[in-house]
Design a protein that fits this description.
Length: 114
């Protein structure tokens, strides 16, 4: 079970992509993942990945809509500070006008995921 210090909260972070940025997304994805790894290793981020547009029909290819993260930090501002420096922000992939960040509390989890 996830334990949090008295000062830290979990945060659900939803980062939609700006439409039409898939080529940029692909070109900077490796840099993004490399830069995020130390934040995961330090425990700031616990889970992250792409989320997708709803499928038009079963078996249709998934189309990336944006990114989502679960963060663990003392403040929303701490999370935003790191994400504003990310290459998905600086290269114009994430749409910061539509970013949503909510306090979050894990109720159930399974080690190892999947």
């Amino acid at each position: 079970m996830t334990t949090l210090s008295a000062k830290k909260l979990e945060w659900l972070v939803i980062l939609p992509d700006i439409p039409g940025t898939s080529d940029t997304w692909l070109s900077v994805r490796g840099e993004h993942l490399s830069a995020m790894k130390p934040h995961f290793d330090a425990g700031l981020f616990r889970l992250g990945g792409a989320y997708f547009h709803p499928q038009e029909e079963a078996g249709a290819p998934l189309q990336i809509r944006g990114s989502m993260l679960i963060a663990c930090a003392e403040s929303k501002e701490e999370v935003v500070e790191v994400l504003k420096r990310d290459v998905f922000t600086t290269s114009g992939v994430w749409d910061w006008n539509k970013v949503e960040i909510y306090p979050f509390r894990t109720a159930l989890t399974r080690e190892g995921g999947g």
